[in-house]
Amino acid sequence: MTAHVLVPALDEERPATLSPRIVSDILRAELRYDGVILSDDLEMKALANEYAVPDAAVMAIQAGCDGVLICSGDHDSQAAALEALVHAVEEERLLLTRVEDAIRRQQRAKERFLAAAVAPRPLGNKALRQVIGRDEHRAIADEMARFA
């Protein structure tokens, strides 16, 4: 997750969330980070005082973020940001390849987490009896009991 901090040594004009120098050049290219990058909440005053949420959404994706957070629950603000992103792609201010790259990264993360979330099926009674109460387990329990 990016922060809305201004780091003049890295980018004198834009906060980290909106900075291609920080997100794309440093985080992606120099540090070779290939995971999903999300913005912090675009409605936070550190950003919202200077940038309209829809403009910040476009700038964050242009900078290299893969998704933006708009956390107030204001559906109009969220819709305006989405609309701004669509228009930016249509007007070629935001490259479609940049959006597709973000979608690929998000999809990869979803697949990884969904695969990890698949719980193994519990062992049946017969299989449990083959595992629980084995001599090795009893030896460990006896050893633990000696020090209790």
Report on the architecture of this protein:
The chain is mostly helical and 148 residues long. The protein has one domain. The chain is built from seven helices and two strands. It has a two-stranded parallel sheet with strand order 1-2. The mean pLDDT is 92.
| Gross morphology | elongated
Instruction: List segments where confidence is low: pLDDT < 50 over at least 5 consecutive residues.
Output: none
Major sheet summary line? 2 strands, parallel
Radius of gyration: 24 Å
In terms of structural class, how would the helical and strand content be classed?
mainly alpha
Number of helix segments?
7
Q: Please provide the count of β strands.
A: 2
Strand order of the largest sheet: 1-2
N-to-C order of helices and strands: HEHHEHHHH
Number of structural units classed as domains: 1
Helix content: 55-70%
What is the rounded distance between the termini? 46 Å
Overall average pLDDT:
92
Provide the β-strand percentage band.
under 5%
Topology, element by element:
Layout: H1 20-30, E1 38-41, H2 45-48, H3 53-63, E2 67-69, H4 75-90, H5 96-117, H6 125-131, H7 135-147
Parallel strand pairs: 1-2
Task: Give the tags.
148 residues, mainly alpha, 7 helices, elongated
Short summary of the structure?
The chain is mainly alpha-helical. The chain is built from seven helices and two strands.
